[in-house]
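Entry 14. Two folds queued back to back today. First construct below, sequence then structure tokens.
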Amino acid sequence: MEYDTLVENETLRAHLHDPAWVVIDCRHSLANFAAGRASYEEAHIPGAAFADVERDLSGVKTGRNGRHPLPEPRAFARFLGEIGADERSQIVAYDEGAGMFAARCWMLARYLGHARIAVLDGGFAAWERSGAALERGADRRSRIARRFPIGRALDPVVTAEDLLVEIERGALQPVDARAPERFRGDVEPIDPVAGHIPNAKNRPYGSNYRTDGHLRPPAELRAEFERLGEPERLVHYCGSGISAAANLLAATAAGLPGSRIYAGSWSEWCADPARPVERG
């Protein structure tokens, strides 16, 4: 069976020793870039490889392409191949739970055309609560490197130029995954300009999750995303392209494929003073 959005603890436990399954730990902290690896070495799901969000799940920053630009496709394909994944692999990504970093990995694999990628529902927190096995220390496993191919993106990526043209025509509906106060422009603790992309609607990525870190039921999510517009018109963005992936994952898991992502997000958009900004 192929898993392309979510996978449950029980299913992953049954495949921990399956060589066709590749598990990736994506835990991270935007306030402390070293925290993810420290958490991994403290305890992780057995056999999981570690993905550094700043290095493995992001590209080179130029100062105008956002805080987490997309990695160059060949670089990300090389990373996946080095940890043992190829076109036949079932990849499972996880973060702490109710997070956005595993969704980023999910989005990037789909960007390379790989459908067999799922996020562990509930993340590491749910795995640990269940009493499932843990592994400690650095990754010392001998991994067989493979060739990971680059295919056609499953979820098209929108550029700032595309978005600027299409929102003026009303053809695309931007959906902002940031907290309401950042969307409104009341505060902006990270980027140099406060506000949002014109005509955007706000859907904080955290609203996709239950209090226990699991994704909310598909029917609930579907009803809420449908109120934002037709899936093909929705373009998800956030501060830097990370939490936007959580909205894309939730919409897809709710049975609403077809929406897109603006990977550069607000940090890229506001780097060009010629681009319009809305507040309120």
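Second construct, same run, same settings:
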Amino acid sequence: MGERMKRWKNMLTATLLVASGLSGCKQPLYMTIDDHKAVTASGLLPADLDVNPNVIAPPTGEGHQKPATVDYPDRPIRYMTLAEAFAIALETGTRGSPAVFNALNGGSRAGFAYSDDLVSFQGRSVAGDDAIRAFALDPAIIGADIEGALSKFDARWITSMTWQKVDTATANVLNNFNNGDTAAFTSGIFKPLPTGGLAGITYNTNYTKLSNPPGGFQVINPSYQPAVTFSFEQPLLRDYGIEINQLNPAHPGSIRDNVRASGGRSEGILITRIRYEQMRAEFERTVNVMLFNVEQEYWALYASYFQLYAAEQGLRQAYLTWQLRKSELDAGKATAHEVAQVRAQFASFRSQRIIALQSVLETERQLRGILGIAVEDGKRIVPADAPTLAPFNPDWQSALTEALAHRPELLMAREEVKARQLDVMLQQNNTRPDLRFFANYNVNSIGTQLDGSGTNNALRNLSDNTFNNWAMGLRLDMPFGFRDANASLRASNLNLARSFIQLKNQELKTERFLTGVYQNLYSSYRQIEAAREQRYALAEQLRGLYARIQAGKDSLITILDAQQRFATALSSEHNAIANYNIALAGFQYAKGTLMQYNNVVIADGPLPNCTLARATEHERQRTQGIVARERAKLPGSDGPNPLPSLLEHQPPTPKEQDLPVELKAPTSSMPLEPMIPTRPTTGIESKPLEKSISPTGRPIALPISRTPEPLR
């Protein structure tokens, strides 16, 4: 009796150990409920997003401010550093347009940053959004497929219980013993193995109770027939081995135990991990494009303010010239058509100023779009950083090596070649026949009950291990010719060749793109030197002309062209400065190091505790200190011109109400001069100049006796 109990305990212990081993450990979920709650609590998502149908209700326009226009542009200044712009963009920004080559090689900047395109329907989903928050979810979506690929090795528990009542008429008439009650209970745990095999342990009990037991025969009625079966199945050719089962989308499963193949929702484990790395690289590419677009629009806004400054400089000079010419007309030293020529010059500068003002508003709109902030918040953004004017002479070989190693596009292409190599291995596996080995070992018993201390206890009899069945064998499944497998293998080899050619082409394009940006880097810097030299020369010419006019040697009319050319040179110089700083960022973009250049890092999972404070708040406080420092610099000093110092020392422009009638915009009540063929006036009245913006945002004045100083 004691020996039997010992054998029973040993067998039960072994069964539990095998069951626990087959069940495996619980796999961690990619995104737990707590992770989802943390995202919801951060305010990024509504708390009831999954159940509230009203989250898609169209919002109203209430609370949105009317955008500024050239008629009403006055708003308080909000200084912003480039670092603060990066921080805001990383939090709420948009990628914008990825077309950066034209912007880096002399193309127009307009239209290459912020994209106004809305989404489109792609047949099964809506696509086309460029919000960085949406792109950040793409690697997580692909990463969830890794868990799906690993799940094919999870143990499975299969259990069933059936009851049956047999009451056949023939058996009743013939007094047969086939009628009665039957039941069957089966419970098994099956563990898919990394080698492609399947191990299982199954417990089943069959119950029979005959309604008319036969006479003269020894029949156990009712009877319980418990059994424990250990099974094993392993492919020997196709689908054999750990490596190939990391590539297979689904586990081979078991044919004899009728355990279907699991997995198949995604590609194999190794290829799914490659897809995750590719999507992560794609997100890095998106961040690079966004950072470049932020910097491009930031310096474009800087240049736009100087374009406006140049137009206002010309407007003040034209007004001064008109005053002097008008006084000469009153003294009889000038003719009316000469005064009209000066008046036309004033109108030309006025038109340039309106165009420059609209350029400021449009560039600010573009920057706000890239940063993902409100279209209008009651303030106008003014760049606070001074641009870089130092020459940059990078080493070409090092730059090319970095570009070939760090461009995320090349990383995606290399990973694609790796995935195609693995796919060839997978298709080669499918050209093998499916030969499987199977074996099982069974322990069974019988009894009239499942408990008790006597010999009628079926479970106790099972522990005796008296009755055993076993079986083993081979099963072959082989299609003649392997036509489908060979066709798939051929297609896989061709896809591998295509991906390799694509990689080499992308590497050549990377070098060609880097070459263009490298050349543009030097060209942009030399353009600054040429534009500055032109501005110096035109400023000297303008001084000389003023001196000759004041000495009575030349007519005042000779200064008009010089004024126009000086304003154009002033604008061109700062356009060149902006283009050079954009070229510096473009060079880092071409190397794939723009994120490192701007101290941006992509990491998986939640932020560490040391970075929980919002970067935007930190950068906003830093901006205040930078603005205070830049305000102390005077225009005309050596080095680049920061906008805070320029706006602090800007003289006022003439106001509309201070202008004489002939310089004001014509209206329907002011007829044009006779003898001049022209179309009728439109009756549209221009707004006063005091409603127009200047870089300072406040009145500015230039002494009439003072000649314009060159901007240094």
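Quick look at the second one. Strands lie at 77-80, 120-121, 126-127, 156-166, 180-192, 198-210, 223-235, 380-383, 434-444, 467-477. Residues 155-268+432-489 form one domain.
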